[in-house]
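Task: fold both queries, return tokens.
Query 1:
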Amino acid sequence: MGNCDLCNDIIGPNAKRFSASQMRKAVRAGLRPTGAASSMASFFGVSQQESHAGWMQMVMSDTSDWALCDSCASRVKKYL
């Protein structure tokens, strides 16, 4: 068992996998983090815009596959 690479929820062995290039494509199309991942920015004194910019930079430089829960996988598919 692990955690969803987008929302951090628990995922099982059948988690949906997306390549780094698929995630970059989804981010270019408008995918942004939501929920707790997005709201933590204010806790650390960072604007949501700055937080998203940092997250986007991380996604654009990442080369590993992403394992996602069903909910996040559905969101990503809408951007592909």
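Query 1 returned. Query 2:
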Amino acid sequence: MARNPFRRPYVFSKKWAAWIGVGFPIVLYIVLTAPDAKRSDAASTIITALIIYIALPWASMRIFRALRKKSPQGKTYDHDGEIIDGEVLNLKVGYRPRVHIQAKLVSGVVEIPAGKIAVAEIKSIKIKDPRPISIKLLINTFATGMQVLYLYFIAQPLILLFALVYIPILEKQLGKPQSISVNERYEQLQSNSFLSFIVHSQALLQPFLIAFSISIFMLIIKPFISKTALVITSNDGSSLPMPFSYSLNPYIQVFVESRRAKRFIKRVRKAKK
């Protein structure tokens, strides 16, 4: 197990040091020159600002990076407690329990659990489903069908909320007299050939619950149908796969895990040039 970064000697984080030199003086100036600021409260104001704008950001940064086995500069520790001098990609395998794995780019060599390969020998490095195309096509067709059903059922409550609730509120805020009633607005939706295909009634709860059930169902079966791997293909055609699992949370997958993996691939391709 990697050494706890709290045991390492303290070194300033560059971002935190930049915040002290640039951000904190500006905040302190704004606080002390406020119209209601009093000279007698200057000392307490400075102490409060030090705690809120320096101590708390430093503590949160230090704890967050320590939990990820990183130094204050964001560098990663290996299993021997030494800082890895290079690009590191931390991924996880499985869901319960989650097993941590690493891909490293150190001195022009990419290291993954399956082996090592020099960047000069890499033909391609991608994140993809390593299964045969027939299986991927079947699963993607099923997932696309479920997404279409989800959009179909979630569209009705969204359209009704916008047309029957938000538009009257907006008209009221603008001082515009309400021209038609809720029932008349609903009849307008029914008269539209496209919207009438989506909006069947004024019910909000039932289509929302169906859409919510579809999303929960896809979340439950995701570990059984989703397979992902970092696949490195060499110039001779052989491949080194590193299977990993995205988080069940789609937002974390898109904004954190996927972005981190793409950054590692970009660094590897840049090192090859």
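Both queries returned. Flag for query 2: The beta strands are 87-93, 99-106, 109-112, 115-118, 122-128, 228-234, 239-244.
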